[in-house]
Design brief:
2 strands; globular; 333 residues
Length: 333
């Protein structure tokens, strides 16, 4: 439904509602039906939507809790297909380009010499980030072996690029006095292209053709990648296998998509939740602290060293404070 279908006075409200629902796991048909119900209620009541329903974002949160599905959450998240991976890759590339352009402008002014070694290092860092996105997508899809293969391959490429940069050394200038805005615009191109490709890529459809052996294997892998303990994961697989043998339907017909079921089981498992919390907390705090330590030890940022270290320290503190509120042993009892 187009927002223009709403009365003019309610279009801003409808836009906020739609934007709030955009990132929530609500199927498109359910969302369209809900919006038609809201519009019909507005026409019947003859009052503004804000007066009838209240805040658009609060209503969106309530509707998402009722209409959201686990299948949609998997379909639109990491591991759900090419589109989510392209979105994350595009956002990552854009962020790298913006940060690089700002740091370059602060350190070198409005013009910079582009040398071969710097280009090789930049490409290596980009490959590493993209490989991380691809590895996470495969890992979240319950495919650990391809994920490890992707991470090893991109790690080798990144190290090869950095080694080549060290071999080339400084002094091989490709272009002199390149305007930083032009350099930044060129660096933004890959990220923008990835985001455009994501927008043009159809939302993936969860696979519906499974034989029982493949279903059980993917279910087990998805449980393990969500950090469910090995013995617990084997127990769940055995239960499904026994139920399938006792019945006349397939595992997919009986239990649905294996990754969807695995995420539901993992979310209900306290040990798995605690493991995921610790890993994400350590990654969000230790990594900024490690980078801050390297910057401080190398002291190659000149006058930007202390500000950069302070920003990274604040990032670690904020990450720890944010994760503290999500402790699984406190939030879920």
């Amino acid at each position: 439904m187009d927002v223009i279908a709403w009365p003019e006075r309610d279009r801003a409200w409808a836009t906020r509602y739609r934007a709030s629902m955009g990132a929530r796991p609500v199927p498109a048909d359910a969302l369209g039906e809900r919006e038609r119900q809201l519009l019909a209620a507005v026409h019947a009541a003859g009052v503004p939507a804000a007066e009838l329903f209240g805040d658009a974002r609060e209503l969106a949160a309530e509707d998402a809790a009722e209409l959201g599905t686990a299948d949609e959450a998997v379909r639109t998240s990491q591991g759900g297909g090419l589109r989510p991976a392209l979105l994350e890759a595009g956002a990552t590339l854009v962020a790298i380009a913006v940060v690089g352009a700002v740091l370059t402008a602060v350190r070198s002014g409005w013009a910079v010499d582009v040398d071969l070694a710097s280009v090789l290092v930049a490409l290596s860092v980009t490959v590493a980030f993209l490989g991380w996105v691809a590895g996470r997508a495969l890992f979240s899809a319950g495919r650990p072996l391809p994920a490890v293969g992707a991470l090893v391959a991109v790690g080798a490429l990144a190290l090869a690029g950095i080694g080549a940069a060290a071999g080339v050394g400084p002094g091989h200038v490709l272009a002199r006095d390149v305007p930083v805005p032009l350099w930044g615009a060129a660096a933004l191109v890959p990220g923008v292209l990835a985001l455009v490709a994501a927008r043009r890529t159809r939302q993936p459809v969860l696979r519906e053709s499974w034989d029982d052996a493949e279903w059980l294997r993917r279910f087990h892998h998805a449980l393990r990648t969500r950090l469910v303990p090995s013995a617990t994961a084997r127990g769940h697989v055995t239960e499904v296998e026994q139920a399938t043998r006792a019945g006349s339907s397939s595992a997919f017909d009986e239990f649905g998509h294996p990754v969807v079921l695995a995420r539901q089981v993992a979310d209900a498992d306290r040990t798995a939740r605690a493991r995921r919390w610790w890993i994400s907390t350590v990654a969000g705090t230790v990594m900024p602290l490690a980078v801050a330590g390297l910057i401080l030890a190398m002291d190659s940022w000149g006058s930007l060293t202390i500000p950069a270290v302070v920003v990274l320290l604040l990032s670690a503190v904020l990450a720890l404070a944010g994760r503290r509120a999500d402790r699984p042993w406190v939030g879920r009892r």
